[in-house]
């Protein structure tokens, strides 16, 4: 094996094509097609069977909802095997899974997930927010870990049917929603390290209340350089379960020192990447021109492609550019933020993600100093974060008709 490889590697090195690939940042990206099982496998939503629960749960009063603590009556599941592709989708009562202890998910982390929400509009219709984006991203995650992909439209159809069935769990009030958690795991019973020959795609749902029931609460961050969340060529840009467990100890360390979340830095330059499990935005005033700039890190393989991030960027391009703002997806560093803050040019900072939409940042602990992020004492959110929450919610709840909102047929 080794003997075969060495001459080949030398041949590659000498070919100009190899050098070009090496020099290009794309060298690090693995395409969906590379995964052995990633071919689109037909998923037939019309084969759905529904078995309703005979013991419906009592609804938790909306004011008592805790994120991810209570679940609805049912779950959606679809099995896949390498030999037969996707089996018929099933909605069944919410129940335990029965898996062999040798299932590959438990040993080699064949797991990825999505986070999205169903909302109830003022007419009582159920809506999904940009579900195509979540399904597209899930296919990127699954194919990176040799799990099967699926037809996005069929899956949106199934999610709609599931959300419609669980409609009674979605409170009507603004800020409330039904959090949907599509999950895929490799189920093959084997300790051999290889592509799973079987998988399970399932969706569970949890009714959730507003992230800020009493209004925004700005958070304090700890700039983290001793632990790295994601790196070039890694999988930080995919929603793989394996990315999250290693972030808990650093988060506990930050909490011990009184900070809510980690601000993940990367490299000697101390690039700002993400905050906790959210994308990060900063609003800066240009040193020379005074022009305002909304900045977030570019999708270079170390940044999760947030649906909220994309929504914030597109709303900013639509609404802030006409007001003279510059909108940038570019690398920026912690020293750049510290300098801007010391010169009064750091206007605001916030995280973005499905759970909170936006999460304003008060300050960042960095090398023994506290970098203040533009909020006045007693102020909990800046202008941009406040506007973004309003603009995005108005599209999520259908107050503004927009093609980002997908009305679930009833
Ligand atoms: C899920 C997630 C986000 C936010 O993505 P949304 O689609 O906006 O919810 C950002 N960063 C990380 C690391 C995430 O896991």
From TrEMBL:
Known cofactor(s): pyridoxal 5'-phosphate
GO BP terms: L-leucine biosynthetic process; L-valine biosynthetic process
Keyword tRNA processing: no
Taxonomic superkingdom: Eukaryota
GO annotation, cellular component aspect: mitochondrion
GO MF entry, a single one: L-valine-2-oxoglutarate transaminase activity
InterPro entries per record: Aminotrans_IV, Aminotrans_IV_CS, Aminotransferase-like, B_amino_transII, BCAT-like_C, BCAT-like_N, BCAT_family
Keyword Cell membrane found: no
First-level EC class: transferase
EC annotation from Swiss-Prot or TrEMBL: 2.6.1.42
Entry-annotated residues carrying N6-(pyridoxal phosphate)lysine: 239
Family recorded in the similarity comment: Belongs to the class-IV pyridoxal-phosphate-dependent aminotransferase family.
Protein name: Branched-chain-amino-acid aminotransferase
Organism: Coleophoma cylindrospora
Higher taxonomy: Eukaryota, Fungi, Dikarya, Ascomycota, Pezizomycotina
